[in-house]
């Protein structure tokens, strides 16, 4: 680091008779870090007051072409150990030029030379060094990565809660000019044992910008106090002496939940290695529960509310023999409660199921990736893997999926397909048993979901057995039947391509589909339409559905599907791709599903020719609507007229259909003031041509001042002027000539103003009923003024 601004450097004196002897220096301002425009002031201390002392500043200022002379300002006392020295001091002052072109750098030497007039000897000291920092690093953003709920507000500061032993991750972004760039983080305020070597940095640097992230693990005894905020200082430093820093604030929380959780009673003896464990916690600050089996192997159980209690549940894997189970409640930052009472459970030595591998059928149900869909006549072929401690007798029960199926079909042992599987830090030997069964064509079972095929293993050595019901199938002999699907829209949007009928759509357009299906199961279908091939921004939740006709006595359901394409859905401008497929998938109450695909073509090319007005509409009119006419490109295009009511901040749209001679007429609505009219040719899918060019039309309101008759409290005076005002003065007088109310409006330009009067005078009192005078002074945009006085009657 650079010396502090008040640092003094003492030098070893030169040998006697070799010339002037430099004793040291003292920097007054701005310190040893300089920037363009800084005033540099320092003292140089020598052994005599009769020297000519000069400093060469060219290393820090390119415009300092000649050394500057120091001024003798008296002697300075310097304490060195037990000695006091009195040395002459020479003062130097120089302003670093704003045009200084030197690059940032560190260790820049300012040589100071002293000449002795009596001896002619000179001595140069190069002990005074500075660094130049005109472009220091700039901190852009830093954030603590973690659970958002750990951020708390304390006295207007946002703090992040941590605990002893916790892990901290920070992401930080900087800009820099002088390479190389680096950062360092000071965790001393959070961790009494903090050391720079315990911070792990990573980063990606591009030219001029650096993204860093770093990790730090607090020691188990990091901090024992409760003070806050605890600062984490992150410093950025460049290849010169540029520095910047940011401070992140933390709060230390080492207080865990006060009460231990309790485990619900567990059986003393079990035969299934998978044990369901649950319990209750008594501290609302508990975030989750840590379950320990045999003193290790942490399992995290989530906490949830049940009636007026907080409970937890998890499934633990037991080892053969006696297992001990304990639990801790844990808060948001990971502090633990006292430990629960220990529960003991003995696992008897039973066969251990490992896994299934299904060979046939190869397809899965359309609604899930884990449940296999089968039909009558399908072959079910799978391998069941168990532990290899004994040659088990394995059977499979197909009675739940096949009314003609066996309840105990023997499996075939397949040693050639045994496996050795790595699980964590250990290996497991898996023994393979093969099962094969074809569902009967005469199977009378109804369709259904989650139909288990229990597989049982019997150990001939111990007589113990175990059953797995993890293989789930669904039966779908009666899937939904597609009746019809219609695309709603202009018949001109249907085109023939290579003997296929395609429906035209466009980027930013909307498609509406109706589809009808029949099922023997009287419940609504699940509908899913996949637009991913047409729209690169497709998200399923953006597709909206509506039930037109729910399942009735004949089990028919009809659904409406609506989808709005993104503005850059598919295809470059002028390029039509076809066919684009949109599968519509239907699932019934079980796992029966059907698919129907519609074909689309993307058309993003609008009409090549635009619309022209004939004649051009007038610039100022006195009535609305306004009749306009013109020429369009012709069939199959229509004309879209867009009217931007600029003064009312609203827009109207009118559609016109050209006649056989490609001419069109339309009446467009206007609002008082400025109206911007533009016309476009539009094809059947909504693509527009280039615009006709905007025409500006003013609707002139013949009434410049409107007053309700009679005027009641809260009514409005309406002032309209198509030419626009810069300012308004509105005043109300009684017949005696007294002004009772006034308002000024100087926020123009504006073309309409509604002035509300609540019937009160300037003192807030309701005036009496009767005649009054309204005086309006209008200042036009051009500066001219007009005054109008109108009488009106006020009634309460």
Output the keywords.
65 strands; mainly beta; eight-stranded mixed sheet; 796 residues; 53% strand
Tell me about this structure.
0% of the residues lie in helices and 53% in strands. The chain is flat, with a radius of gyration of 44 Å. The strands form 14 sheets. An 8-stranded mixed sheet has the order 22-24-27-26-25-28-29-23, with no helix packed on it. It is mainly beta. Strand 64 and strand 65 form a beta hairpin.
* Total number of beta strands: 65
Shape: flat
Biggest sheet, open or closed, and with what strands and sense? 8 strands, mixed
Number of separate helices: 0
* Radius of gyration over all CA atoms, rounded: 44 Å
First-residue to last-residue Cα separation: 81 Å
Q: Calculate the mean pLDDT score and round it.
A: 87
Please provide a brief summary of the model:
By secondary structure, this protein is mainly beta.
Write the layout of secondary structure elements.
Elements: E1 8-10, E2 22-29, E3 33-34, E4 39-46, E5 51-55, E6 68-69, E7 71-80, E8 83-95, E9 105-109, E10 112-116, E11 122-125, E12 129-132, E13 138-144, E14 151-154, E15 157-162, E16 167-175, E17 182-186, E18 200-206, E19 209-217, E20 230-237, E21 243-252, E22 262-263, E23 269-270, E24 274-281, E25 288-293, E26 296-306, E27 309-317, E28 321-330, E29 343-347, E30 353-360, E31 372-374, E32 379-387, E33 393-396, E34 409-410, E35 412-413, E36 419-423, E37 426-438, E38 448-452, E39 455-458, E40 465-468, E41 472-475, E42 481-488, E43 494-497, E44 500-505, E45 510-518, E46 526-529, E47 544-549, E48 556-564, E49 580-587, E50 593-602, E51 612-613, E52 620-621, E53 626-631, E54 638-645, E55 650-656, E56 663-668, E57 673-682, E58 695-699, E59 705-706, E60 711-712, E61 716-733, E62 739-745, E63 750-756, E64 770-780, E65 785-795
Parallel strand pairs: 3-12, 15-21, 23-29, 31-41, 44-50, 52-58, 60-65
Antiparallel strand pairs: 1-2, 2-4, 4-8, 5-6, 5-10, 7-8, 9-12, 10-11, 13-16, 14-15, 16-19, 17-20, 18-19, 20-21, 22-24, 24-27, 25-26, 25-28, 26-27, 28-29, 30-32, 32-37, 33-34, 33-39, 35-37, 36-37, 38-41, 39-40, 42-45, 43-44, 45-48, 46-49, 47-48, 49-50, 51-53, 53-56, 54-55, 54-57, 57-58, 59-61, ...
């Amino acid at each position: 680091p650079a010396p502090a601004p008040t640092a003094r450097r003492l030098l070893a004196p030169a040998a006697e008779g070799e010339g002037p002897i430099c004793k040291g220096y003292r920097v007054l301002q701005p310190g040893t870090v300089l920037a363009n425009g800084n005033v540099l002031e320092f003292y140089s201390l020598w052994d005599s007051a009769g020297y000519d002392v000069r400093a060469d500043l060219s290393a820090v200022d390119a415009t300092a072409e000649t050394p500057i002379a120091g001024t003798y300002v008296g002697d300075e006392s310097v304490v060195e150990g037990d000695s006091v020295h009195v040395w002459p001091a020479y003062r130097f002052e120089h302003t670093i030029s704003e045009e200084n072109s030197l690059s940032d750098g560190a260790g820049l030497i300012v040589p100071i030379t002293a000449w002795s007039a009596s001896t002619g000897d000179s001595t140069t000291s190069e002990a005074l060094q500075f660094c130049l920092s005109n472009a220091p690093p700039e901190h852009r953003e830093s954030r603590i990565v973690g659970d958002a709920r750990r951020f708390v507000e304390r006295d207007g500061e946002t703090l992040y809660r941590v605990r002893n032993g916790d892990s901290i991750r920070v992401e930080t972004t900087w800009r820099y000019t002088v390479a190389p760039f680096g950062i360092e983080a000071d965790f001393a305020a959070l961790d009494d044992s903090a050391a720079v070597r315990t911070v792990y940095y990573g980063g990606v640097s591009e030219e001029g910008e650096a993204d860093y992230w770093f990790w730090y693990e607090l020691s188990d005894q990091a901090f024992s106090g409760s003070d806050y905020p605890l600062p984490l200082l992150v410093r950025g430093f460049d290849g010169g002496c540029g520095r910047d820093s940011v401070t992140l604030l933390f709060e230390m929380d080492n207080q865990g939940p006060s009460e231990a959780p309790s485990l619900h009673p567990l059986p003393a003896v079990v035969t299934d290695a998978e044990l369901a464990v649950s319990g209750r916690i008594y501290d609302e600050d508990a975030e989750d529960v840590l379950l320990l089996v045999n003193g290790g192997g942490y399992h995290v159980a989530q906490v949830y509310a049940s009636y007026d209690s907080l409970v937890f549940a998890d499934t633990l894997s037991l080892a053969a023999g006696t297992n001990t189970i304990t639990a801790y409640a844990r808060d948001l930052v990971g502090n633990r409660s006292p430990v629960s009472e220990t529960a003991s459970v003995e696992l008897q030595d039973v066969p251990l199921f490992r896994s299934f591998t299904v060979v046939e059928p190869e397809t899965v149900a359309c609604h899930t990736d884990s449940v296999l869909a089968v039909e009558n006549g399908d072959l079910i072929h799978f391998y069941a893997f168990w532990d290899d401690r004994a040659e088990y007798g394995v059977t499979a029960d197909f009675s739940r999926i096949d009314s003609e199926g066996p309840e105990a079909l023997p499996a075939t042992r397949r040693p050639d397909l045994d496996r050795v599987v790595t699980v964590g830090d250990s290996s497991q030997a898996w023994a393979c048993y093969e099962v094969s069964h074809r569902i009967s064509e005469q199977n009378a079972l109804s369709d259904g979901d989650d139909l288990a095929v229990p597989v049982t293993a019997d150990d001939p050595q111990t007589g113990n057995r175990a059953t797995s019901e993890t293989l789930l199938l669904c039966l779908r002999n009666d899937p939904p039947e597609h009746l019809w699907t219609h695309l709603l829209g202009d018949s001109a949007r249907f085109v023939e391509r290579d003997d296929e009928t395609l429906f035209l759509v466009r980027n930013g357009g909307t498609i509406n589909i109706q589809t009808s299906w029949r099922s023997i199961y009287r419940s609504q279908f699940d509908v899913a339409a996949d637009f991913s091939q047409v729209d690169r921004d497709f998200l399923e939740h953006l597709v909206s559905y509506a039930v037109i006709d729910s399942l009735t006595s004949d089990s028919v359901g009809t659904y409406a599907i609506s989808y709005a394409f993104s503005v850059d859905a598919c295809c470059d401008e002028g390029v039509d791709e076809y066919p684009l497929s949109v599968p519509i998938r239907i699932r019934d109450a079980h796992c029966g599903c059907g698919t129907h695909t519609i074909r689309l073509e993307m058309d993003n090319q609008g009409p090549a020719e635009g619309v022209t007005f004939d004649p051009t509409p007038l610039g100022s009119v006195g009535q609305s609507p306004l009749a306009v006419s013109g020429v369009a490109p012709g069939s199959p295009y229509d004309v879209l007229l867009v009217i931007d009511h600029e003064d009312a901040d609203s827009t109207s749209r009118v559609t016109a259909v050209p006649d056989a001679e490609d001419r069109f007429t339309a009446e467009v609505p206007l609002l008082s003031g400025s109206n911007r009219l533009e016309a476009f040719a539009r094809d059947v899918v909504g693509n527009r041509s280039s615009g006709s060019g905007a025409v500006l039309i003013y609707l002139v309101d013949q009434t410049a001042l409107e007053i309700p008759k009679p005027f009641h409290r809260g009514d409005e005076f309406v002032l309209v002027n198509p030419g626009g005002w810069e300012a308004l003065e509105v005043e109300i007088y009684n017949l005696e000539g007294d002004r009772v109310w006034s308002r000024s409006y100087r926020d123009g330009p504006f073309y309409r103003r509604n002035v509300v009067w609540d019937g009160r005078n300037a003192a807030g009192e309701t005036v009496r009923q009767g005649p009054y005078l309204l005086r309006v002074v209008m200042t036009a945009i051009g500066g001219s003024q007009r005054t109008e006085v109108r009488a009106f009657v006020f009634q309460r």
